[in-house]
Amino acid sequence: MLNDFINKSRVAYFSMEIALHENLPTYSGGLGVLAGDSMLSAADLDLPMVGVTLVSREGYFRQHLDLHGRQTESPETWEPSEHATRLHVKTSIHLDGEDVWIGAWLYELNGHMNGTIPILLLDTYLDENTPENQKLTHYLYGGDSRYRLKQGAILGIGGKRILQSLGFSVFRYHMNEGHAALLVPELLKQFPFRSDDVKAGEFPFDLPRVRDLCCFTTHTPIGAGHDSFGYDLVEDVIGAEIEVTILKKMAGDESLNLTRLALNGSQYVNGVAKKHADVSREMFPGYRIHAITNGIHPHRWVCPQLAELFDEYLPGWCHEPELLRNVDVIPCDQLWEAHQTAKTQLINHINQTQNVLLENDLPVLGFARRMTSYKRVDLLFTNIDTLKQIAARYPFQIVLGGKAHPNDLDGKHLIQQLHILSESLRGDIPVVFLENYDIRQAKLLVAGSDIWLNTPLRPFEASGTSGMKAAINGVANLSVMDGWWIEGCVEGQTGWAIGGVSESENGNDALSLYQKLECDALPMYYERRSDWVKMMKICIQKNGTFFNSHRMMRRYVCEAYL
Ligand SMILES: *Cc1c(COP(=O)(O)O)cnc(C)c1O
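Above: the input record for the complex with pyridoxal-5'-phosphate. Below: its predicted structure, written as tokens.
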């Protein structure tokens, strides 16, 4: 079984989170879903890759909301032995004065065609470890910075050693975000210069050799969003594995910045949308930063009703989403029916679980994402009276959802705020907040909404992917011009832009949002239904064919891996 995978040289894809399956809680949000979609495309396209991630036995967390929108969390425990195969392999790293043993599970990720990608799930839940160390791979993004640094070491250093012990031959390492950057100094150890060739103060390793092996995708357009650790902590935790003087040369003098380390250790670096690459170049001057705009996995995200239509009229679309450019061959009434069925499923799901009743013939505005300040999830509610006036003319209903990180008090407060605001719309606009937003709910939501809303603060939306999921389901986007939407927006055809691309427009977005809703989106929905269905087709045709992970992975292969 493992032998099927070690027979050819592969690209090793390192990611702290990978959303492998909707039943497995090994992801927190967009980054993990992207990693999962990337691996699914790799499977469909039969790319020689291997994924490396942590097992996250307790998941990210399950979100519970009380009537006032107060979030509490509980673990989302899963049992690896029910889904993966324990591998006879072990390695150790010296962390914080102790040997931490790391084992691995093999998860076989099947594409829905014929390929399979091996995913290694690193696990410290072993008898050899102290009770505390057994939990190092339990909680995704849990604990304090010491815990997270250890997780980074397990992923980057441990992951590399496990690959080697298993006999994988790797011709490229891809770091999906900076979490795995300790891979770089671990690789350096393979290429030391002979000590008598190294003069005092010179770098004692062959860095160009390592850079040749590595590529790095950055996802964070916020300075503070890049994990960094003080060198006292670094010395304590990983000093025995890597000399701090080496790290200081590559990861910053002040503190260990994982993004900086990955940048210095990679010959190919990219951002996840054109705009994000521009922003990253400004944030990290002196580095050559390319752009590969994100995509979503077609078969994972197209709802079953539409998939059936695509299969009938455009066979082969799963492997070659470009075929969707001929979506016009699908009769408009059939496309509309498929969407209405997806919408009914969403509404039934909501009506069964919430004490709000949504209706099939009113448009649904969908809006779900991580509850964190830059996403500005409350922008829609800036002026409650205006919102009511619009709804009096053109009734609509709103579905919200999203988790706040357990330590993000602002994010938690935002959810409570949204509950208060929803309450103030009672009787005028039905508003629902879905508990525990995850892939399963996202699938219902992106296909069953009529308009997909996104209102981030420029320039902080690196890409955004939920709007792409909506687009391939024929759902129009109404979004702030940031991230992928700058590339995907054709005004009035694939949806509508809120404001322009300039950051100076951040303050006018609420007005622009209300105007687009009242003067463009809703009138079209109610008064020009055939134009609306035409627009659904254009979303699929222009954006579904492009913002998918097959195109994205083909570009990674051509531009980063080969
Ligand atoms: C797609 C997805 C996200 C990311 O959505 P954004 O638009 O990038 O915010 C987050 N969570 C889940 C469950 C998703 O499916």
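Notes for the reader.
The domain at 300-546 is CATH 3.40.50.2000 (Rossmann fold).
The mean pLDDT is 96.
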